[in-house]
Write a structure and sequence with these properties.
The protein has 459 residues and is mostly helical. The protein has a domain of 182 residues. The chain is 65% helix and 1% strand.
Length: 459
C-alpha cells in the first residue's frame, strides 16, 4: 500500500497529463544530434566487450569533440540499454528510446520525490517544459545527479548518513560534481560533533565508489584513461553559460555587424574575438572560490541547505564549462529548499537553450535535417539572411549568458544570506516580487534580478 501511494501519479490532473504527453513526445521524437549518437556508440562498444574511455583521445583528435566522459555508473546504464536494444532488433530508434528512457525514469523519480516532500514544488517542476527537453533530449545523466543530491539532502535532514554517503557515491558515479558537496558536509559534521554520522557517511561513500569503479576496472582495461578525460575538461576553454563565454559571443556579434557593414568578407569561422586574456580567471576561480566557501563555512556554521546548494551554485558560476544540462543537477534541490527561487533563472536559460547552436540540434541525424535553420530557406533568402541570423544568434546567446550569470550570482548570494535582514531592503531578500515592488518602488527596475520565495529552510 505504501509503495502504491509512493507511485500514485496525479493522472487525473490536466497539468500532469500535458506534461506526460510532452515527455513521451520528446522520448520518441527528439534526440540531440551529437550527444545521443555518442551514447549509442558507447552502448554498442560496451555490449561488444570494449571499454568507453580508450577512444576518447582518438575521437577528440578526429572530431574536435569529446567522447564518453562520465564515470562508470552511466556506462552500466548504457550497457543495459544496448542489451535490450540488441534483443529488440538494434533499430536506431529503439536504441535511442531505450537510452533516453533512463532520463525519463529520472524525471519521474524527481517528480515522485518532490511530490512526497512538497506537492507544490512537484507541480512547479512538472510544469517546467524545458526540463524534459534538456534532460531527455540530451540523454545526459545530469537529472539523475540532481535526484541523488536532492534525496541525499532529504536523508541528511533525517540524520541517515549511511544513505547520504551511498547517494553521493551514486551521484559521483554519474558525474563528478557531487564530490564538491562532500567536504562541506564533513565540515558541518565536525562542527556539530556528529562523529558517528561522519564515519557512516565516509564509509558508505567509500564503499559506494568502490562498487561503481571496481566492476568496470575488472571487466575493461581502459579505466585509467579516465584521467585523460579529467585533464581535458580542466584545460578546455570557457564555453557555455559562463560570463567569459557571454562576453566572447557579444564580441563575435559586434565583429559580425562590423563585417556586414564594411567590405570584409563574411565567415563564421572568423568569429573568434573575445577577451581571451581573462582565461586565467577560469583557471584560478574554481579553486579560489571553493577555498573561500570553505573558509566561510569554517568561520560560521552552515545549515544543510547551504552545505548542499552553495558548492553546486559556485560550480555553475566558476567552472570553465557550464553546459545547459548542468542546471538540472541543482534544480531539484533548489525547488526543495527554496520554492520559487529558480524562476529568475528560467528566462535567460530558455533563451540560451534555443539560441546557443541551433534548435534543430534536437532532431536525430536520421531525420536528414540540416543543423542550421537558414539552410531550410530557399537559396536567395539563405545567402542574404544567414549572416544576419548568425549575428542575431550570437548576440542573443551572449545576452542570455550574461543575464543568467548575474541572476545565478544573486540566487547564490540570497541562499548564502538566508533570511537575514539587509540594509538596502530593510527585510529579507526572500520577499515576493509583489512585496518588492510595493515596498521598494525605487528598486522596481532591479526587482527582476531578485530571487523570490515564500518559504526557505537551512535545516
Amino acid at each position: 500500500m505504501r509503495f502504491q501511494r509512493l507511485l500514485a501519479f496525479p493522472i487525473d490532473q490536466w497539468w500532469f497529463r500535458w506534461g506526460l504527453v510532452a515527455r513521451l513526445a520528446i522520448l520518441f521524437a527528439l534526440a540531440h544530434v551529437y550527444d545521443v549518437p555518442i551514447f549509442q556508440d558507447a552502448s554498442n562498444r560496451l555490449i561488444a566487450g570494449q571499454g568507453v574511455y580508450a577512444p576518447f583521445t582518438r575521437w577528440l583528435a578526429q572530431h574536435g569533440e569529446g567522447y564518453f566522459a562520465y564515470p562508470p555508473l552511466y556506462a552500466y546504464m548504457l550497457w543495459v540499454s544496448g542489451r535490450a536494444a540488441a534483443i529488440a532488433g538494434s533499430h536506431w530508434l529503439i536504441s535511442q528510446v531505450l537510452i533516453k528512457s533512463w532520463m525519463l525514469l529520472a524525471d519521474l523519480g524527481v517528480f515522485t520525490f518532490l511530490q512526497r516532500k512538497s506537492p507544490a514544488a512537484a507541480r512547479t517542476y512538472w510544469s517546467l517544459w524545458i526540463v524534459p527537453l534538456v534532460a531527455i533530449g540530451y540523454a545526459q545523466p545530469d537529472l539523475w545527479v540532481g535526484l541523488a543530491l536532492a534525496a541525499a539532502y532529504g536523508l541528511a535532514r533525517q540524520e541517515r548518513w549511511t544513505g547520504v554517503g551511498l547517494l553521493l557515491a551514486a551521484g559521483i558515479g554519474l558525474k563528478m560534481t557531487p564530490l564538491l558537496v562532500v567536504p562541506f558536509l564533513g565540515i558541518l559534521l565536525v562542527q556539530t560533533r556528529r562523529w558517528r554520522g561522519l564515519w557512516q557517511m565516509t564509509a558508505a561513500l567509500t564503499a559506494g565508489l568502490a562498487a561503481v569503479w571496481v566492476p568496470y576496472t575488472l571487466v575493461f582495461p581502459d579505466a585509467l584513461e579516465f584521467v585523460h578525460i579529467v585533464e581535458y575538461h580542466l584545460t578546455r576553454p570557457p564555453v557555455g553559460l559562463t560570463a567569459l563565454s557571454g562576453l566572447r559571443l557579444l564580441g563575435d556579434a559586434l565583429w559580425g555587424l562590423n563585417a556586414l557593414a564594411g567590405p570584409h568578407p563574411w565567415g563564421v569561422g572568423t568569429l573568434a574575438l573575445g577577451p581571451r586574456q581573462l582565461d586565467v580567471f577560469y583557471t584560478l576561480a574554481p579553486h579560489l572560490g571553493l577555498a573561500l566557501l570553505a573558509a566561510l563555512a569554517l568561520v560560521r556554521q552552515w545549515g544543510l541547505a547551504r552545505a548542499f546548494a552553495l558548492p553546486l551554485l559556485a560550480f555553475l558560476l566558476l567552472n570553465r564549462i557550464v553546459n545547459e544540462q548542468y542546471l538540472l543537477q541543482v534544480l531539484p534541490l533548489l525547488l526543495l529548499i527554496a520554492p520559487g527561487i529558480h524562476a529568475r533563472l528560467m528566462g535567460p536559460y530558455v533563451l540560451y537553450v534555443f539560441a546557443a547552436g541551433t534548435p534543430l540540434r534536437f532532431f536525430p541525424p536520421q531525420y536528414g535535417l540540416p543543423l542550421l535553420p537558414e539552410m531550410l530557406l530557399p537559396e536567395p533568402l539563405r545567402s542574404l539572411g544567414a549572416p544576419w541570423f548568425t549575428v542575431a544568434l550570437a548576440a542573443a546567446t551572449g545576452v542570455a549568458t550574461l543575464v543568467f550569470t548575474v541572476r545565478l550570482s544573486v540566487v547564490a548570494y540570497a541562499l548564502w544570506r538566508g533570511d537575514r535582514p539587509t540594509p538596502r531592503l530593510g527585510r529579507s531578500v526572500f520577499l515576493t516580487v509583489k512585496q518588492q515592488n510595493s515596498r521598494h518602488s525605487r528598486l522596481r527596475g532591479f526587482a527582476c534580478l531578485l530571487p523570490y520565495t515564500r518559504v526557505w529552510s537551512d535545516g
